[in-house]
Amino acid sequence: MLIESPPQLYRCIFRGAHWRLNTTGKVIYLTFDDGPIPQITPWVLDLLDRYGIKATFFCIGDNVRKYPAIYHEIIMRGHGVGNHTYHHLQGLKVATETYLQDVEMAARLIDSTLFRPPHGHIRLPQFYALRRKYQMVLWDVVTRDYSYLRTAHDVINNVKQYTRSGSIIVFHDSVKAGQRMQQSLPHAIDWLLEQGYTFGLVGDALNNDNVIG
Fold it and tell me: What is 8-207's CATH number, 3.20.20.370, 3.60.140.10, 3.40.50.300, 3.40.50.11240?
């Protein structure tokens, strides 16, 4: 649970980050990390189109550089985008100046004020520096579709166990997560719809001040 749904203490340490969003009904926020890539992202976009729902994609700058057409396709289909650093850097492993420079490299390609640190790992000085310019978006539910120790069934169960109104849910449009994500995402969406949830965009909610924390 410490991974799938971060504890309150961790949320308090990074005060000002958005882990969950306020809603007037049963709304959740579907997000994808680590794309865009041609092997996975177009499949996700087509699936979302079939369901008629929107999501927010936290993109790696170098992937946007390599696959700009897919990045623009995300936007053209009405989805949101966010900055996920240029090189998928873990903030705990690099100096603050290096980390901030990497984020700004990504910002030259990704037009967004939303930022999510890879793995959720970030030093407090990095966090406070970025918070001056970006809306820091983390998560209420991480599906762990990236983990070789998890099955697609486990991924679906994580969605079922931890999702609540306002949850920001993380999947990954990456090669590492691809098979588990593709097997679990349609079933997760079906379950969410059966429970009466609708799907919102993180950026829209933040612009409307729909914030819990």
Answer: 3.20.20.370
